[in-house]
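Re: the request from the purification team.
They wanted to know what the chain is likely to look like in 3D before they choose a buffer screen. I agreed to run a prediction and write the result into the notebook, where they can find it.
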Amino acid sequence: MAKIAADGKIFNIGIVGLGDNGMMHLNGFKKLPDCKVAAVCDKRDEARERAMGVLKDSSVVSTPDYKKLCAMPELDAVCVCTPTFTHTPIAALAIECGKDVLLEKPIAPNIEEVDAFIVKAFKTDRIVQVGLVYRYCNLYRTLASMVEKGDFGDVMMAYCKEYRDNFPTQWFFETEKSGGALLDKNCHHFDLFSWFIRSRPARVFAMGGQHVVKGKSVKVNCSYAPDQNLMIKNPDIVDHAFVLVEYENGARANLGLCMYEVDPLEGLEIGIIGSNGSHALAKRDVTLNAGGGPQGMMREVPVDYVSDNLGIGHIGAHIQHVEFVQRMRDRRQPFASLLRARESMVVCMAAERSIKEKREVKISEYDSPAIKRLMKKYAAEFESASPAPLPAPRRPKEAKASREKELVDAFVTLVRLLMGKRPLGQAAPFARDTFVAAAKKINADSAYLKMAKGLNTVVTFEYPGKEPIAAVIRDGKLEIVPSRTVVEEARVIFTEKGWEELQAGDSIYRVFLSGNIKVDGDPGKLRPYTEAFLRIGKSLSAD
């Protein structure tokens, strides 16, 4: 838990832009004892009302005018979470008004605007941190620490696969406003490449275009779009691409992007391969596996996936806020600095140019004398060691398991059991038939019935937009019945992500702790029968 520093200073934060990112930052700063969200700004009345409802503080200033917010003398910092094409006017004004800035990525949609802002910012003593949130998460800090220890020799290959649905609102689909799909979506991933390869990008070649998201009008396909019926007008960004990057040290990286996949999504994969043959793979931001070469057999690397975000949003979100406040105190360059952000964004811009002009693009085409001088001045930061991740969770030494662990042992093994054998490539539907088929197999297993004898309970399973499914257990025997006919003793609530992650084989405990499975009621009486659930669950999975 963060504590107020010895000087007792409380930082007043203003937030401009109250969409999903803005609310993430609002909830994050609200959690810090040495911060107060003192002002919020958005042109939309309903957005400001939502923010004020979360803050529940009548002293907070609510305004549609970012100029008014930036001019407030009591503010120490401004968090800019507006559309990309509005970033630098707001951030530049905040700096002029003497405020530090947490600026969402990307900095701006074109290199001229990016460079003008960077030069302006470095002429002041203001802290500007960019929202490259992966730099603050335990997952990628863990991988970076392994790289810096030499576990992979030199990282000579890196790759990213991001196959997903598209953007949520109209402005993203206009290159002039967003800078293009690769800039908005993948500046995170090219930043990871530079971080792990520890060399500067030199040249880029890319191919891409519009397969699906094209024409005068096309329906939005985004799970978090505020308007699920939105018709996108004249999209001019790519909806797919493959990008190759070569680095000054000879390392190479590739990225594949698809923006028209439909649920269930394949999700995100980031991998690296070292000169000693070792390799690592991070999947969906919730697992990290490493091995090969001197590391031997592949294994899961322990990572704390919860403490760096505390449920407020993207992994790393909480630490992003903690370290922003630290930089406000010590006045050092942030880990996600303007210069680091520029480097990843230039790769994106080069890829967009390569697609448009059908040629290899050299990073030197984006050189600027002023930026070169700044890069030379701050060169040491590119060589410095990464901040350490928070310690990975360890199993408690005490004999008695925590209540959370008891819950997981008790009911998630039952969930596995009822889901039966996982299909390849996608999650089974959350449907009564899925559970009925599993129950028939379970009840046919005499060894299970003997181990579960004496168990009587009712557990319901809930999934977004679906009728709950009730599992009645009478003397160990399972029956699936209409949920309206019973009163459950325990309730298991899935998010869509939780259902898919569990079937994809992700860690039960991590899915539980991440909030993608929740429990109501008291499933404690199931715990003595865990071995029975595990036995039949393994049997079904082997079918």
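For the purification team: Residues 421-425 have pLDDT under 50 and may be disordered.
Please add any questions underneath this entry.
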